UniProtKB/TrEMBL annotation:
The modification N6-(pyridoxal phosphate)lysine is found at K78. SUPFAM superfamilies: PLP-binding barrel. It comes from Linum tenue. This is Pyridoxal phosphate homeostasis protein. Keywords: Pyridoxal phosphate. GO terms for molecular function: pyridoxal phosphate binding. The keyword Hydrolase does not apply. InterPro entries: Ala_racemase_N, PLP-binding_barrel, PyrdxlP_homeostasis.
Length: 279
């Protein structure tokens, strides 16, 4: 394989994996290279959709002048059956996200243990122990928006003897009262609390959901980018090592171009939601 082909294969492989700031694991590369290389006519619809998303992510990263290897794709599977998640898993993807605790704890035990799960959105304090007990391979909580939840997460992680849990502070960048997330003016204080007072949590970055229709505007993206600058300055952290989770099915390409390192793609991979199945 020519050098350019190797670089392309490594990029294609990693945009679907789960650890954007760590070295690529060879087995992940081979799985996802197979996804990208397989003829589309032989793919099931969900596999073809995954391949299309990975390609679009790579192209958006290249337009932004950043490495596709720095962008994580979280396949958000709320309301979708385990059988459909298994198809995406069998295609080589390993990073999945859920929004509802009860649905999450029902699904996760039915799927392989090497999945790296993300919980996305507001996590109620009374659901923390349930979630962490049921999902030992929970890798990230994208949605800590107050000190109470952070403190409970820290306590439960410690009681279970787990390694530190990655968390992102959820920021309400749209100003919508219906949206969870801390006001941008409070993100530094909350980030400082997690960093300094929650030793069992690893502060990984910031996330936002955006507008009422779950899309985001350039202003939403800029707000989160500015929040990252403020947090990293206050905590003396490198911005390159502090993630931004922004962008979903309708706007993940624009989010990547604005600096997102973590995109949450659901319906574009799995198809329209069936909220009648919400638990």
């Amino acid at each position: 394989m020519e050098e350019g082909g190797i670089r392309k294969a490594r990029s294609d492989a990693y945009v679907g994996s789960q650890l954007s700031l760590l070295p690529i694991r060879p087995q992940t590369c081979s799985r996802l290279r197979a996804i990208m290389a397989a003829p589309a006519v032989e793919s099931r619809p969900v596999t073809a959709a995954l391949r299309s998303v990975l390609l679009r992510v790579r192209q958006a990263a290249e337009r932004a002048g950043t490495s596709p290897e720095r962008v994580r794709v979280v396949a958000v599977s709320k309301t979708k059956p385990v059988s459909l998640l298994r198809e995406v898993y069998d295609a080589g993807h390993r990073c999945f996200g859920e929004n509802y605790v009860q649905e999450f704890v029902d699904k996760a035990p039915q799927l392989p243990g090497d999945i790296e799960w993300h919980f996305i959105g507001h996590l109620q304090s009374n659901k923390v122990k349930i979630l962490l007990n049921a999902v030992p391979n929970l890798t990230m909580v994208e949605g800590v928006d107050n000190e109470k939840v952070a403190n409970i997460l820290d306590k439960v992680v410690s009681s279970l003897g787990r390694n530190p849990l990655n968390v992102m502070v959820q920021v309400n960048t749209s100003g919508e009262a219906s949206k969870s997330g801390i006001d941008p003016s409070g993100c530094v204080k909350l980030a400082e609390h997690i960093k300094l007072h929650c030793p069992n949590l690893a502060l990984s970055g910031l996330m936002t959901i955006g507008m009422p229709d779950y899309t985001s505007t350039p202003e939403n993206f800029r707000t989160l980018v500015n929040c990252r600058s403020q947090v990293c300055k206050a905590l003396e952290m490198s911005e390159d090592q502090f993630e931004l989770s922004m962008g979903m099915s309708g706007d993940f390409e624009q989010a990547i171009e604005a600096g997102s390192t973590n995109v949450r793609v659901g319906s574009t991979i799995f198809g329209p939601r069936d909220y009648a199945k919400k638990k």
